[in-house]
Amino acid sequence: MQYRRVGQTNIEISRVILGCGCFGGIGSEPSLFDRAENEEQAHEILDAAVRLGINTFDTADAYGGGRSESYIGTWLKKADEKLRSKVVLSSKTYNPMFTGDSSGLSRGRILERVDGTLQRFGVERLDMYLSHEMDDKTPLEETLTCFDELQRNGRIRAFGASNISCEELERSLLICESRNLNRYEWVQNSMSLLGYQEAEKILQICSKHGLGFTPYSPLAGGWLTGKYQRGLHYESGSRMSLRPDPYEIFVQNQDSIFDGLDSMKKFSKQRFGDVSLAGISLAWLLSDDRITGVIVGPRKPEHLEPVTEALSLHLNETDRVDLAHLFPKL
Asked: Can you give the residue ranges of the NADP-dependent oxidoreductase domain (predicted)?
């Protein structure tokens, strides 16, 4: 496993991060709570991740309505002190945790929600805390000042932003500089071979200002694993069968995507031998030195196998460009 420091912090994370969005539910959707990995299954995945050298777990208070954080917390209680000391915990807030709950990034809500996160993890300080979405109803200054307060008070070590636009990121950096506040130290937006144009723009800003970047959905909801076939017959329990909305653009462009996957199989065999599509897709991201770490969300321990493949590969710039050209620009 490779490790990197996040932004200008002293937090060292594994370059592959375990995404825990399916612990106790499918993401933040209340109707899908209890529709994914239970506590025992979550612990099996955590054990498998640690064996690979993954030290960073990414979740959110709304994942599974708090179940994801709680499952990680019970796993930590069983772990020995040496292992616990190496674990980096990252969580997010914004979304409602149950039907009828509030959302947003107001100071009062953040202070309330971080307390719940710390209790579910069973820790006194959180390593990494992110805004899960941007809140257009709360002044950005209020949100940033609250995160800065949490960091200065030792409740969190650093904070970042997920699903943030280039304009919002640049504005936040200006606010923090002008008010002498701690700043966002990294960004967590989606990025994959099926969607990288917008991420590339924000990655350039991160690189310019020395921020980290930890993309999620590197396998595009399973589309880059080869699990979906022409005709779109979705396996029961897959993301496309439970929560297809985020991937509708792939359905609309399915012919060109499946053509690209066919070409990718040939590319992989010619240049790397017997390597999975998922392994190549992860390696494509990890080969970009500007990327701090990639978040993967396995549903089973064996889904971590492509991580091992990806870590053993280093794609050169020609490989990266050739792969990108196989797919439509979405």
From this structure: 35-318
Query: Which residue has tokens 């772990």?
Result: 79
Query: pTM to 2 decimals?
Result: 0.94
The alpha-carbon radius of gyration of the chain (Å, integer) is: 19
Measured in whole angstroms, the distance separating CA 101 from the mean position of its chain's CA atoms is: 23
E strand residue ranges, the chain: 3-5, 12-14, 16-19, 56-58, 88-93, 126-131, 156-162, 186-188, 212-213, 294-296
Phi and psi for 182 in degrees, rounded to 5?
-60, 150
Q: How many CB atoms lie within 10 A of CB 230?
A: 12
DSSP assignment of 71-133: HHHHHHHHS-HHHHHH-EEEEEE-S-SSTT---S--HHHHHHHHHHHHHHHT-SSEEEEEESS
pLDDT in tens, 220-278: 999 999 888 887 777 776 777 777 788 889 888 889 999 999 999 999 898 888 899 99
Residue 18 backbone phi and psi in degrees, to 5? -85, 115
Tell me the per-residue pLDDT of 104-157, one tens digit each, with 9 for 90 and over: 999 999 999 999 999 999 999 999 999 999 999 999 999 999 999 999 999 999
Q: Residue 250 and residue 260: Cα distance in Å, rounded? A: 12
Percent of the chain with pLDDT over 70: 99
- The token duo for 47 is 């054990």
Is residue 94 a contact partner of residue 104, using CB atoms and an 8 Å limit?
yes
Any idea which fold 3-188 has?
TIM Barrel (3.20.20)
Looking at the DSSP bridge assignments, the partners of residue 56 are 88
Question: Residues 92, 161: contact at Cβ < 8 Å?
Answer: no
What is the Cα–Cα distance from 35 to 127, expressed in whole angstroms? 28
* 175 sits in which H/E element: helix 166-178
pLDDT in tens, 197-226: 999 999 999 999 999 999 999 999 999 998
Residue 203 in contact with residue 213, Cβ under 8 Å?
yes
Listed by start position, the domains of the chain span 3-188
